[in-house]
Amino acid sequence: MRKLLNMGLEAKINGILIGIITSIVVIISVFVLYDSTNEYYDNAERLSLQSAKTISFLPSLVNNQGLSEEAVQSIANQYIFENDIDFVIIKDSDGIIVTHPDPEFIGEYEAYDEHDAKTKLFGAYLTYETGRYQEPAIVSTAPIYQGDEFRVLEGVVKAGYFKSSITSNILDKLSTLIIIVVVFLLLSMLVSRLFTRYIKSQTLGYEPREITTILKNREKIFSSLDEGIIAADHSGNITYANESGKSFLPSNHDGANNIFHALPPEVGEMLKEEESIAERYFGVTIDGREIVILMKYLYEKEEAVGRIFILRDISAIAKLTNKLTVVESLFDDLRAQSHEYKNKLHLISGLLEMDKYQQIREVLNDEIDNFDSYNSSLVNIKEEHIKALLIAKMNKSSEKRIPFNINEESQLDKAAVSEGMINPLITIISNLIDNAIEAVAGIEHPEVHFYIGNFEGWMEIIVEDNGSGFDDEGKLFEKGFSTKGTKEERGYGLYNVNNNINALNGYLDFSHTDGVTRFIAEIPYQKEGNE
Where is the Histidine kinase domain (predicted)? Predict the structure, then answer.
């Protein structure tokens, strides 16, 4: 059984088609043979009775002296020749055989059996099977009468067919049917082979189990991708979508099964019209999410048959960008801190060479005071990630000779910050402080102030600087907007800050009054179950 299941597609199709066609042909042949056999026997019975009746009514069969032997023999031979029956037996009323297929029986007496007796006594027309004459036969009997007004029984005529003749006709029919069956088998083999080749061409030569494996693996691969993959025909009707692709489709849109309807109207109309463009990128907003879409045409035999859309949520890219930005900022801060300490070590080394011990003591006291200042400012900030970030920013500002003051009332409990808030908070705090430090760089008496604490059950973050502020405040939080550098290099800091605050369901306020630029972020505390 396992060998049958492991057979190739071609062998299976050939076996199934040949088996079905052969079964149909054999069933039809058996039915035809059965029907023909019954027909042959029915015809034999009907024709033998008809022949017996016809001969019995021939006027030349009898004369004034009764049955004429010469006339009877001549009529019987002629009738056998013309009507293709096997034999005719005629005997007179006394049982003397007048004509017989075996000449030796002519003139002999044959007793009337029960069938002949019924015909002789009652004038009955009978058909029956008998084995009395050379071999089994189908025989019909009819009475022979003389006279019109007063009829006298002159004898009995028997006409019949040997069963061997009927069997021979059936065998001829069977031979014809066998030839037809063989021809149909050959045709079915040819048809099945052509059909198999067509199926194999449509399946690219793969076996069904191979196709199943490929489809399963393809679905596993596509389902594991974060990118959405959607295939559609020319009309935009979606023919395939992986799990990520389905998540990008509008949840409450009536036309969600059509990619043109799922996209914003202007984009859908543009795609319908621009069929000559083989590939293009574009950004859309679906259900409040910014999505980048790559559209390509699908071709079959150099003819476009549909399109494939690859979708990716920009927010995922933004999160990764934020993390990389924060990591890069921390590396810069650590590099600055390392550079600062290296400078101090060089200073101490030079003072040692000069035996300037008092100056060495002063440098170390300044460093100790800085540590005490750090500790006093950060004593109530218990969340280690935020605390480490603030220390790095303090060292960075120190290297740039920019005073960075952390409000001594700042506080942040570790339990108040859920796991999901840490990375967004690092992005928010890091970008706000970096912007403030850059804003005051190069001015006289620069100052940066930072505060983090609680405000009516919300986390409050305040960053202030005495920089010049921004010229175009309306575009402050737009992607790519920057007051410094080129668009490629900058313009994502405040955009990322705003996005992260929105993701935490918070608010960001901005003001510039009396020469002070102030950013205030208010973020609700989150529980672990609501991340």
Answer: 336-527
